Amino acid sequence: MLRLIKSRPGHLTGLTRRWITSSSSKTTVMSFGDGSHGALGLPSSIMGLDSDAYEPTPIPGLPDNISSITAGHYHSLAVTSDGHLWTWGRNHESQLGRHPLSPREKWNEPKRVEGLNQVRVQAAFASGVISAAVGDDGSLWVWGKSKRGQLGIGEGNTDSAFPTRVEALVGEEIVKVSLGWGHALALTKHGKLFGWGYYADGRLGKIGKSFESSPLDSVDSKSLPSEEISSSMLETAEKLVLEGMEKEKDMPVVWEPTLIEELRDIEVVDVSCGLDHSLVLCVDGTLLSAGSNVYGQLGRVKQDMGMHPVDIKLHPLSIASGMGHSFAVCQHHSSEITADTPSVVSWGWNHNSQLGRNGLENVPLVVEALASEIPISVSGGRAHSMAVTAGKELWTWGCGRNGRLGLGSSVDEPEPMIVEYLEGCEVVQAVAGFDHSLVLIAE
Fold first, then answer.
1. On the chain, which terminus has fewer CB atoms closer than 10 Å, C or N?
2. What pLDDT score does 114 carry?
3. Distance between CA 337 and CA 331 in Å, rounded?
4. In this predicted structure, what is the pLDDT of residue 223?
5. Which of 16, 97, 33 is nearest to 433 (CA)?
6. How many CB atoms neighbour CB 239 within 10 A?
7. Residue 79's closest CA among 40, 33, 125, 118?
8. How far is Cα of residue 211 from the mean position of the Cα atoms in its chain?
9. Which residues are CB-neighbours of 172 under 8 A, at least 6 positions away?
10. What is the per-residue burial (b if ≥16 Cβ within 10 Å, else e) of 114-127?
11. Buried b (16+ CB within 10 A) or exposed e, 200-217
12. pLDDT value at position 127?
């Protein structure tokens, strides 16, 4: 399993680019949560076709040398130690990299992406409608379907059933990509940041275009009838997204990767895209946010469009985003906590307790329930969250619907809970899709 090596305290150079390999040669991928799109990778003989899984369940059919996993909104990806990519789940937008006429009943079965036979894949990334892979030479490959230009392969190109190289980034060595609903950010080995796709609300910063507001930001969720909010904020949020998309005409789109102007002379070490917001971590520890702030996911008082600093007092080491909430794993200097012990900090949408703590939602605050743990990574879904600790344990919290917390129930959890089913297992990675979860276990 690939794992981040932290630089010495106060220094973040190379944070997202330096890796070590797990001593274990065999791994198992497990899944749980919503099975309606096949993203769990579980055959009908185990759970029943499209059934949910309430506890971590091993995915059959995958090789035993998976080195990393990725969850799109409704599909899943896994990279092997020898550079092969496997996908399963939703394929309505060709995000699995399979033939468009491949049978629907087979989408839930993990299969290797054949269109990357000549590429040794180092990492994979995904959104709701797009998948991406980075080769060991830094090349970026994309496939899927998006009218918002998220493929980045040229003006008017909205679909690609099979992996296509992003020619605009030839010559750059890409190490990480993050994908929102319609926008994308790509980080190079030398800390340059490129953006493309839908750029409303300044979610891509300055890219040679004037800032435009999205119709989504004109609808305040707090103005909705209280009974609609109390019935299900999840469906309400999705309804707002769909209504906003219908209102958008002549969408502001950048069709090919473009250097982010505000960061031209700044080295970036980590990036993360939520549904319609972006987080950017700079080498000096400055954390920037941009895009929609409907749920306070930008974590700052300054509401100007573009990239601006998050109001965070701690020193971020890495970042992550859910649909409308944000995370940072930070160094914590305090008399109550051992110096340099990392803490998880959260802010943004919290209707289902996905922040894992109380307090002001738009202000970055420490998840106190994890104060005695050492977080290694954190991941956010639509309304649930996950963290892997140095003890190789998995903690989950937030919305429990469909079993996406892996705790054996559909109950929401306001604070992080350890996934007891994995007791005795060595958890090396955990990622959240919109409504499903994946865990990589070392044997």
1. C
2. 86
3. 10
4. 40
5. 33
6. 14
7. 125
8. 25
9. 138, 186, 188, 192, 194
10. ebbeebebbbbbbb
11. bbbbbbbbeeebeebebb
12. 96
pLDDT at 326: 98
Place of tokens 């219908």: 246
Residue identified by tokens 């491949």 is 102
β-pairing verdict for 159-165 and 140-145: antiparallel
Structure tokens at 345: 């900090």
CB atoms under 10 Å from CB of 247, counted, come to 11
Task: Give the separation between CA 266 and CA 256, rounded to whole angstroms.
Answer: 21
Instruction: Report in angstroms the alpha-carbon separations of 441 from 101, 307, 375, 418.
Output: 33, 37, 17, 15
Determine the residue type at 174: I
* Number of residues written out for the chain: 443
Pull the structure tokens for residue 398.
Answer: 């937030």
Q: Which amino acid type is present at position 85?
A: L
Tell me the backbone φ, ψ of residue 174, rounded to 5 degrees: -80, 135
Strands 325-332 and 341-348 turn out to be antiparallel
Those residues whose C-beta lies under 8 Å from the C-beta of residue 405, and which sit 6 or more positions away, are 32, 384, 396, 397, 398, 399, 413, 417, 419, 437
Give the closest residue to 271 by CA, choosing from 301, 305, 307. Answer: 307
Show the low-confidence residues of the chain (pLDDT under 70): 1-24, 45-50, 208-249, 332-339
Q: Is residue 352 within 8 Å of residue 398, measured between CB atoms?
A: yes
- Which amino acid is residue 378, in one-letter code? V
Condensed to tens digits (0 to 9), the pLDDT of residues 199-250 reads: 999 999 988 666 666 665 534 444 433 334 444 666 666 666 666 656 555 7
So what's the pLDDT on residue 17?
34
First vs last C-alpha separation in the chain = 11
